[in-house]
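Aim 2 progress update. The chain analyzed this quarter is reproduced below.
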Amino acid sequence: MKASTHAESLGTSRRIGWWLAAIVLLAAVLRLYMAVATPLIYDEYQWLVIVDDVNLRPGEIRLPIHGDQHPPGQVYWSVWGKILFGNNLLGYRLGSVALGVLAVFLTFRLGARYFGPGAGLLAALMIATNEYMIGGVSRVCTEKSYLTFAVLSLVLFERAARRPTRRAFVALGIAFGLGLLTKQTLILWAPVLAIELFRRPEPRRLWKTAGPWMAAATCGIVILPDIVFNLFFRIQGYSVSGVGYQLSKLGLGWDWGPTALFCRALIFPLVEPALFDYPALTIMPGVALLSGAVAGLVLLRGTPARFLQILGWSTFLFFSIFGGSGRDFSAFWWSDLSIVPFTLLAAATVWSLPSRGKWALAITLGALFLVKGVQVTTTPDNVFLPDVARPADVALDKARHRQRYFGFSRRHLDHVELCRVGSWWLPAWRYYRDGYEWYRDYLDSDVAVEREQAPGELERDRRFVDDQLRRLPGG
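Predicted structure tokens:
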């Protein structure tokens, strides 16, 4: 009997392992293809200059300067990818892709620990195929990589709370510090983690030990080089931490940004200026996550559920109430910290239903996210996906023109070389070919002749475009 039970348990574990491996592989394929098949966007041109300026050689150390809104952590992840694959789209974006895939595995670990392997697999699938996560982590130096460190901090927090050792708390401090180095929004979770130790009866005594204080000290050590370096190297009046700049953007007044993050129908009338270049959750997956989190307030009980609800809703409500009344829609981006808790809560809510309804809803939800995840990766104009909240054609045309313009206006970069790893051409070369051909037709038009501002300007642009087209495959 015991042997039979053990064999069944082993078989179940293997099936779970195979499903998890398939989900992680899917996440890697979607993110990697997005990284090598899409052109550079506005933010990436700014970050590439910083990545190329970093020097980690002893005696020649040059660390990235802290910007107005973003710490420099994401620069380091791009530097390591560049070292491995060179100055091309794959090298610059590989670090972000790797961290994005890691987030899927960590989400399963946390979901399985809290609500069982079924809920963990569903949560991992929804993170793997989340349009916002795919589009966000497939860019150079994306600060959305901090979500990986956020979920890693939760995994390590649970380990430290259940099996407290100094090593566990030090690991927690390192993970949380790396998250802060990538985006300061994570600081909102620090008081929640501290209070959670008091809220749980067993870990409450840990405050009398060195563990929590070692975590705080380790986190401080991780972010200290950034603070010290920027004390001596300040540019353009940026503050040392960037926190002052972010606080100046906040103000009492309701902001629809966090709601629009999940309810896409609100994006275009309210926060469209913030959306260019980055895919957002389409209406059905976004509403599914938000509805699952709301339903979880009623259907879910227990310490893990309450912990995630505090994490998710405190972030959501903070940026809704103090978002600065939508002055520059920053709350849309800052509130993405709520995505991971809401995903875990939505998966747990589905898994708490009766057996027949649970499987039907889980399959439907998984299929929905899978279709949308593949669509955002394969749709050429994936900044604005067709759905219930499709933007006006003028917005689509503006986005296309904007991205095409970068290809020939940012001439300090060799866009042809960006699309090549050795002799292997990355799929993004087709986008630049289409963009250059589009611009070549424009240069031969009457409109271009009328707008010429200096003698020889059009001829210079023609030579530049012809040279780029000649170096691309089929040129």
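The chain has a mean pLDDT of 83. Residues 2-378 form one domain. These observations will guide the mutagenesis experiments scheduled for the next reporting period.
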